[in-house]
Amino acid sequence: MVADVADGLSPLFSAGQAPLRQSDGSNGLRPDIGYAAEVYQIDTPISFIFTSGVPILSSVPRIFTFIVLLFFSSSAFAASQPAATVRWTEGAADSTVRAAGDGHTYYTLSHGDLDVTLGLDNQELEKISRRVIPMVGVMLSLNYKGRGEFDIRQNRFTLEFVKHFQVVQSSVDPDQMLRHLEDDIEELNREFRKQAKRNDQKQSNDLQARIKDCMDMMVFVSTRAMRPDTLNGSSSSSGWVFFSTKSRWIGAWRRPEQFVLRLPLENVVFEFPFELPPKEGKPGLRLRPN
Q: Per DSSP, what are the bridge partners of residue 40?
């Protein structure tokens, strides 16, 4: 293919079209003046096109052309290679699970200098519909044991809803969530003032409860949500990450629900397939003692 390209370009890389000669027999070309689409042949194997007085290389020996094309093709191929994926696998040496007494199940996947732990609430499915913003919440903890810096960008995390047409949702931005909650509280307060004037006690109580739920969620997101972080040396980072369930393709829950959490971290994607409710206590799972 490279040879075909070189052959196709060889007419262009020839000595070029000789310009019209002047009455004095000279060709009338001056290197300091640009000539559109005309080639000035000099006594070397390389010719130049003068554009606005600046010489531009127009042809080179074919072997050099081949090397340049090969270099850029190799670079593009390397850049297009996907990141390596490590997957939590039941019974594997790098994968463990721990059923804790706090109502959560913890899955840990280790690779290189990084240990990633996924924490799942055993009643997460029941809590989704009761949240002010319907979403799946997972708790993550990253323990880095390397010497350099390690960047965490939670906005790149995704969750696949396997039983719902394999829809993939990106993580919800915490600041966006807080702005949404602030708008909801403002709207609910306006409605509460209207109902207070009408002496509708039941409706007022309902609105107060919704306002409290929004405020509680704001406090939780502000203090517990995972945000971009950089780990230096032996350090760790943890927090909650949320994924919206608002999609035309996500319907009623079908137990057990199946998900795949993907965490691009540096040049590796950590992949956690899991179910809700978590299948804790299933024979064959390697339980880590508390």
A: 48
Beta bridge partners of 237: 142
Angle at 70 between CA 67 and CA 71, to 5 degrees: 85
Q: Kindly list the domain boundaries of the chain, sorted by start residue.
A: 2-80, 84-173+222-276
What residues does 96 pair with on adjacent strands?
A: 108
What number of other Cβ atoms are within 10 A of residue 217's Cβ?
19
- 129 — pLDDT class (breaks 50, 70, 90): confident
Mean pLDDT, residues 67-93 taken together:
65
Pairing mode of beta strands 114-121, 104-111: antiparallel
pLDDT digits (tens, 9 = 90+) for 214-246: 999 999 999 999 999 999 888 999 999 999 999
Contact 261, 188 (CB under 8 A): no
Distance of CA 229 to the CA centre of its chain: 15
The phi and psi torsions of 163 (rounded to 5 degrees) equal -85, 0
167-193: buried (b, 16+ CB within 10 Å) or exposed (e) per residue?
eebebbebeebeebbeebbeebeebbe
Q: Pick from 103, 104, 102, 85: which is nearest to 94 by CA?
A: 85
pLDDT, one tens digit per residue, over 83-107 is 799 999 999 999 999 999 999 999 9
What is the fold, at CATH topology level, of the domain defined by 84-173+222-276? Answer: Immunoglobulin-like (2.60.40)
